[in-house]
Amino acid sequence: MATPRISFEFFPPQTLDASFRLWETVQALAPMQPEFVSVTYGAGGTTRKLTHEAVTAIGKNYGLNVAAHLTCVDATKAETLEIAAAYADAGVTEIVALRGDAPKGAERFSAHPEGFASSVELIEALAATGKFKLRVGAYPEPHPDAADSLADVRWLKRKIDAGASSAITQFFFDADTFFRFRDLCVKEGITAPIIPGILPITSWAGAKKFALRCGSDVPARLDDAFTTAARDGREELYALAHCTQLCDNLLQGGVEDLHFYTLNRPHLTREVVRALGIQPELVPELVLEKVA
Ligand code: FAD
Q1: pLDDT band (50, 70, 90) for residue 247
Q2: Cα(51) to centroid of ligand 1, in Å?
């Protein structure tokens, strides 16, 4: 079994405290030599600016290959393409192109009147610039907006055909969920790599809540196991065992890339990655900018 290629997702900090946490996370995970790291993107001007700053600062200070997430939410096409152009100017060459969720308070996603109506439109426009390697989201358990699994996979194929070169999945709890999805993708003619998204579970209550919101299946045996582990004060140990086993099952099934949702909490992710046989490189020199 080959050593997997790994990547990490971070989110941009909103407070000074959160900035320190992001920095600690990058510091702890950069030595694990990820293929790339990505930074999420939210609605609202401030969050967007923070994504841009986090993407460029991580790239500049750590020399990591950083993919910026970008969505269609609440922006005109011109505004969205301006953000992409600013990334290109800053030397960013990878974008995770997404439709995005409904803004707070709204039930469903609705496009800005002058915005991109779907992820496919956004991907086409970004591909036309010729400046980015594009990744997209994928859903081993159908997205709540999908008619069914087949419709979901066919939509994913449209996203790939529009110019994306790989997809990163939503997290899931069982390797078989991913394998069933991968088989369906192959059957529908998708040849681009599908990278499983892995959530190291630092809070079972939080993971369960998020999974239920996404319409994902929460296995009862996992609920029981985490409840028992928490009662015995061993939740962290169980989380490490569960996540390592999940990754191992995926690798046994031919997976070569793993994308970790770090939630800016590096320790469990780092332990899992080490358990998979990846050793940290000696800490790369920080290229700190001179303070004037
Ligand atoms: P799409 O794949 O375009 O649509 C979701 C589903 O709806 C499709 O799978 C398809 O079944 C159906 N669908 C949509 N439009 C059509 C259509 N016209 N015809 C037929 N079916 C259609 N959200 C953020 O806000 N910021 C982030 O940084 C962020 N990062 C993410 C990273 C990853 C790897 C993933 C998996 C998700 C991320 N999300 C993020 C969440 C994402 O924005 C939501 O899941 C959103 O609801 C769907 O975005 P998408 O690009 O995957 O949508």
Answers
A1: very high
A2: 18
